[in-house]
Write a structure and sequence with these properties.
31% of the residues lie in helices and 36% in strands. It is built from three helices and five strands; from the N terminus they run βαββααββ. Strands 1, 2, 3, 4 and 5 form a five-stranded antiparallel β-sheet that branches. A hairpin with a 4-residue loop joins strand 2 (36-45) and strand 3 (50-58). The protein starts with a strand and ends with a strand. The model has no long low-confidence stretch (mean pLDDT 97).
Length: 99
């Protein structure tokens, strides 16, 4: 199993919009992909905004590629989400889950 992790710093006034975007658009899309396992939204308040860490779990890198494309380490950040962010990771981190 693989954990895919992405970090973004949202504008304080747009943090709620970002969570809604995830729940209404991204997560339903992910749930339709064979090999997607689950997701967690982690949030904390930071000096300049609201920091999010999105952690998804997948059965395989092939499953991730169905969402992210062949270069699965490039972050999938739609234009509308980019506008909500102060800064965000352009790449993601993948970790093998050992336990």
């Amino acid at each position: 199993m693989i954990s895919r992790q992405w970090r973004g710093l949202a504008r304080p006034s747009r943090a709620g919009d970002y969570v809604e975007h995830l729940r209404r658009e991204t997560f339903p899309q992910l749930r339709q992909i064979e090999g997607f396992v689950d997701v967690a939204i982690l949030r904390r308040h930071a000096d300049r905004g609201v920091e999010f860490l999105i952690v998804t779990r997948w059965a395989s890198i092939r499953a991730i590629e169905k969402f992210a494309g062949r270069n699965s380490e490039i972050a999938v950040v739609p234009g509308g989400v980019q506008e909500m962010m102060i800064e965000y990771d352009r790449t993601v981190r993948h970790y093998d889950i050992l336990e």
